[in-house]
Amino acid sequence: MSDFKHISCQQVADLLQTDEDIKIVDIRDEASYSAAHIEGAYHLTNGTLNTFMAEADYDQPVVVVCYHGVSSQGAAQYIAQQGFEDVYSMDGGFEAWRKEQPFVQSADE
């Protein structure tokens, strides 16, 4: 059975600088995602899950992001069990990222 790995915000930022193939999936609610998210992140919801699975490259590294790095662990485990080879849960979630790294913020914030 495939398992996910943990990854820090800094490690994700480093990967984004060196590996344009990495896929960030944000599982937070619509309002939180719309207000601010990591640039290029895919908003993964129950409604977008089938599309994500159908279009995804199972060899591409996937980093799952939630609010604080807790919920992303369950989602990362699920994604890994679907056959993705390189799956991570970002420790600290978007709240940690917000303190350390650049992100996209909606214009009305």
TrEMBL record:
Pfam families: Rhodanese (PF00581). GO terms for molecular function: thiosulfate-cyanide sulfurtransferase activity; thiosulfate-thioredoxin sulfurtransferase activity. Keywords: Cytoplasm, Transferase. InterPro entries: GlpE_sulfurtransferase, Rhodanese-like_dom, Rhodanese-like_dom_sf, Thiosulf_sulfurTrfase. It comes from the Bacteria. It catalyses: thiosulfate + [thioredoxin]-dithiol = [thioredoxin]-disulfide + hydrogen sulfide + sulfite + 2 H(+); thiosulfate + hydrogen cyanide = thiocyanate + sulfite + 2 H(+). Its main location: cytoplasm. Its EC number is 2.8.1.1. The active site is at residue 66. CDD domains: GlpE_ST. Belongs to the GlpE family. This is Thiosulfate sulfurtransferase GlpE. It comes from Catenovulum agarivorans DS-2. The gene is glpE.
